[in-house]
Amino acid sequence: MTRNLFDRQLEDLHQNMLRMAGLVEESIEKTIIALKNHDVELATKIYRGDDLIDDMEKVIEEQCINLIMQQQPLAKDLRTISAALKIITDMERIADHSADIAKITIKMAPEKYIKPLVDIPKMAQRAKAMVNRSIDAYIKQDINLAGAVCNADDEVDELFSLIVLELTEIMKKCPDTVGQAINLIMIAKYLERMADHATNIGEWVIYGVTGKHRRYNNISQKLSLSTPYHHL
Length: 232
Prior knowledge:
Largest sheet: none
Number of helices: 7
CATH superfamily: Phosphate transport system protein phou homolog 2, domain 2
CATH architecture: Up-down Bundle
Strand content: under 5%
Structural class: mainly alpha
């Protein structure tokens, strides 16, 4: 009976995480629509709508804490819940970056863009896809899908480098474009950070399934090699 209750509560947690992920994906998509269309009204809604995602994070966080305290989960289940706590933090930060882009969009709304927006929307679509696949990997407990999300980060990094290079060249040729070019670079940087957070989610999925986290395991290995245990 206790296990059945735990499974139902865990399923409820997963459904809320899917809802939060849906809101985050929607925020990324609408942010880029607002940017491309100089849509101040939509950008303002995105900026104000960030509170709803913050509220979802708090609800899920409370669910996780209640599951740990009331159900006393075993190791594998505890890792799954701990991973969820980390994942919702990354999702909330992705939504924060959507709000950051929305603020820049409002600022640039009266301006004609110095170049067509091509690679920035590509970055946004890839970041959104990474979020979608990372949450899918969490629900399915699929470490192969989670690993694919982590690997996809390189594509976003490459696009970011291309955007910076192109905008730098534009600034050199036309100094009066510097203000907007810097804003566009900032937008690209926020998208690059979104992809980083999606990668974090993938890494936490792998941890939840295997008990191993790539980043922290590497740190532990370095510490074990550098610490003279024989002197302790």
